[in-house]
Write a structure and sequence with these properties.
By secondary structure, the protein is an alpha+beta fold. Helix content is 36%, strand content 30%. The protein contains two helices and seven strands, in the order E-E-E-E-E-E-E-H-H. A hairpin with a 2-residue loop joins strand 6 and strand 7.
């Protein structure tokens, strides 16, 4: 498990860019596409830029919930992938217009 504390905002889990999000901790959930974000003693499950869960008080309860394979979780993951594809597709279209 990778746990990293940052004093800056992140564009992703490994890059620092801004100072708006001090004291936020990111933990990758092993063998999954999920990340757990800890902010002000609350935990949230995310995939990419999309929050998947409400706030949890307990890290292990959140990890267990994220790893349950349910229709709801499957739908959330598909939605996040589709959103990412749409962003990339829009960027490609813009690049092609410039040429």
């Amino acid at each position: 498990m990778k746990t990293t504390e940052y004093s800056n905002t992140l564009t992703n889990v490994d890059q620092q860019t801004n100072e708006n999000y001090s004291n936020i901790e990111f933990t990758n959930v092993e063998n999954s596409p999920f990340t757990i974000v800890r902010q002000e003693e609350k935990y949230y499950g995310v995939i990419g830029n999309h929050r998947l869960t409400e706030a949890y008080e307990n890290l292990e309860d959140l990890r267990e919930d994220l790893l349950k394979i349910t229709w709801d979780r499957l739908t959330q993951v598909i939605w996040a992938v589709v959103e990412k594809f749409k962003v990339n597709n829009d960027q490609i279209k813009e690049l092609l217009k410039e040429e």
